[in-house]
Amino acid sequence: MKENKPSKIIKSITAIFLAAFVLLFAFAFLISEKQEFSEGENRYLEKFPEFTFSSLKEGKYTEKLQSYLSDHFPLRNLFMGLKAETEIALGKREIGGVYIARDGYLIEDYAAPKNTDKIVGQFEKFAKSLESAEVSLMLVPTAITIYEEKLPALAPVRSQMQTRDEIYGRLDFSTIDCYDALMEAKKDNELYYRTDHHWTGYGAYAAYTAYCEAKEIVPLLLERFETTEVSTDFKGTIYSKLNDAKIKADTITIFENSENRLTVYYEDKKETTDSLYNFEYLEKKDKYSMFLNNIHPFIEITNETADSDKELAVIKDSYANCMVPFLVNHYRKVYVFDTRYYKGGPSRFINENQQITDVLLLYNMNTLDNDTGIGGIY
Question: Residue 255: beta bridge partners?
Answer without folding.
Answer: 227
